[in-house]
Design brief:
40% of the residues lie in helices and 19% in strands. With 277 residues, the chain is an alpha/beta fold. The protein has 2 domains: 64 residues, Chemotaxis Receptor Methyltransferase Cher, domain 1 (Orthogonal Bundle), CATH 1.10.155; 191 residues, 3-Layer(aba) Sandwich (Rossmann fold). The strands form 2 sheets. It has a 7-stranded mixed sheet. The chain has a 3-stranded antiparallel sheet with strand order 3-5-4.
């Protein structure tokens, strides 16, 4: 991969051209993504690969493997274990007491990226003696990040920050109880992975695939335009059991969407909603 050197730019009309081109050659549709987020991500690829717009178009069409690389890079999202510790505190205190009334608990982590939030949810369930009757589905459009999630192997250096998050969540345990350190890698314990399934799923085009008591999709909708946001929120509504919970990112505002009339706000700070009809 080329080093960062020249600074390449892409205009908004060129982004529209690239969206049209990509849909024609791959059937992958970026039209629902906000143009500002696409601009940042595409420019990052152009600078990493030292490609101007003409070269980028040529690479997407003609270079084997580049099209998939481009899609993976433009759809990757950043995540971490126990991100926003207060959110996990709220799950433990307000949501889990309700979830434990179900004989089986099904959870969907949508847009899970490399899987850290999925394993955070698994730890939360395990600490509250709910893991053995729970199943977590982690989905993402990006197969590359899902490969990392499935392996459950992460750089050990990241676990200093993850441990700080975990401690702020007020666990009585140590995060090190849930992984094995080997050289410079942290390997998530097998017993934490047995009730988890990672799979590809496109929020923009795929349909309901199960009924869930809890859906988390944090810091994903901010990259979608209002039309796609509404489509995804409708998908979540149809996927939730009655009185199930929807958890979104703290920066995401969706109350303007009509389907939200079917939810009540459980926690305004951490964007937690309950389906009431």
């Amino acid at each position: 991969m080329a080093e960062l050197r020249n600074s390449y730019d892409i205009s908004f009309p060129e982004i529209e051209e690239l969206i049209f081109l990509l849909k024609n050659v791959s059937d992958f549709d970026l039209s629902g993504y906000t143009r500002s987020s696409l601009k940042r991500r595409i420019q990052r690829i152009m600078n990493l690969e030292a490609l101007d717009f003409v070269d980028l178009k040529n690479a997407v069409i003609n270079i084997p493997g580049f099209q998939q690389f481009f899609i993976q890079e433009v759809t990757v999202n950043v995540t971490e274990m126990f991100r926003d510790p207060g959110f996990f505190n709220r799950l433990a205190s307000e949501i889990l007491p309700y979830l434990q009334t179900f004989p089986r608990i099904k959870i969907w982590s949508a847009g899970c990226s490399t899987g850290e939030e999925v394993y955070s949810l698994a730890i939360l369930l395990k600490e509250n003696n709910l893991y053995d009757r729970s199943f977590i589905y982690g989905t993402d459009i990006n197969s590359k990040v899902l490969d990392i999630a499935k392996k459950g192997i992460y750089p050990l250096k990241k676990f200093k920050e993850y441990s700080d998050n975990f401690n702020a969540y007020n666990s009585k345990e140590s995060l090190s109880n849930y992984y094995t350190a080997r050289y410079d890698a942290a390997i998530i314990n097998h017993d934490l992975r047995k009730n988890i399934l990672f799979s590809t799923h496109n929020l923009a085009s795929d349909q309901v695939f199960n009924e869930f008591q809890l859906i988390t999709c944090r810091n994903v909708l901010i990259y979608f335009d209002l039309k796609l946001q509404e489509k995804v929120i409708n998908l979540f509504y149809e996927s939730l059991a009655l009185f199930g919970f929807l958890c979104l990112g703290t920066k995401e505002t969706i109350l303007r969407h009509p389907v939200m009339e079917n939810f009540k706000v459980v926690d305004k700070e951490f964007n937690i909603y309950q389906k009431i009809k």
